[in-house]
Amino acid sequence: MLLKPFSHSDQREANDFPIDRQIYSAWHLLTFRSLSTSGNQDKNHKKWMERFQELQEYKAIHGNCRVPTLFGCLGTWVKTQRGLHTTGNLMKDKQEMLESIGFEWRLRKFVELKTQHNEDMWNSQYDALVKYKEMHGDTLVPRYYPGNKELGIWVNNQRRNMKNGTFRARPDRKAKLEDLGFVWDPQEHFWDAQYNALVKYKEEHGDTLVPKDYPENKELGLWVTTQRASLKNGTLRARPDRKAKLEELGFIWDPHEHFWEAQYDALVKCKEKHGDTRVPRDDPENKELGFWVNEQRRQKKNGTLQARRKAKLHDLGFVWDFDDINEEAWLESFEQLKWCYANPGVVFDSALRAWTILQCRLHAKGSLAPHRKALLDEIGFEW
Hints:
Blueprint: H1 8-15, H2 18-62, H3 73-87, H4 92-100, H5 108-136, H6 149-164, H7 171-179, H8 186-205, H9 218-233, H10 240-248, H11 255-274, H12 287-302, H13 307-315, H14 322-342, H15 350-365, H16 370-378
């Protein structure tokens, strides 16, 4: 039986009778509730259809109706539809509409398919890595490897999985990669490889002074320079094990200081052998030492010689002034001549004879220093 609300005339009649007024009120309330329920149903249906349209748009973009729960209102709505379906409270027409666009009520099958897909994909990339190693001899695939960009990204992901601990759930994959010689930390691997190359260099050359542009292994030269820079800027402090390993090998942290000390030691030996530090610039025995000695004088003259080095050379009796060197050499020849004059009959050697001729020529030109002429006159030198 359909309920029909009272008209205004009915209301006036009811006002005349108290009992009829009560019936009117009850009838009016029932009618209002019926109309309200109908309005809410229309509103809910409209909202449902709006979400359904959003789901259709989602499928057009993603190819499925598997909306994540955290996808906002649509994700929550999709979860609600599955819950209503499970409890049998979803209206049949809505169920049919959802199924018409490929809605999946149970995701377990999808998860199984996705898991199998991931497994197949992992094995496919692993096989590609095996081929890479056969071609290149290692598993160090560049992240953006042009031959297979997916492989480079996959290799990087394996290292990340190892680092964040997700490999604990798949020890079989970890073991499979390690059997292939997979490098988990490429930077550590590179450091160790260069260190081993440095060991071989020392065996061949006797030191660790690899030139920066070492032609046989340019990478090694740059690596050695990088280690020195790391010590200087303090980044090597985080790896004391590396510093200790290099020092055990006799690594030279400052090649310039090492060279200076080596030349100083050579100068000490030269003095022990010859009695002085007057090394000719073009010394046939050690040209490098001759150049080095001259460089120390130049640096002292322009004020760039370190105070520590200057003091060390001074203590050795280093001759700083060329005039002093010439004077010492002249006095040495003069003493030889004086001895010959004191010992008649001694034959002058060719060097002393050449020296005496030179003094005569200088005297004739007027360029012989007066104090030198006076010394020669004292021993009766014949001009």
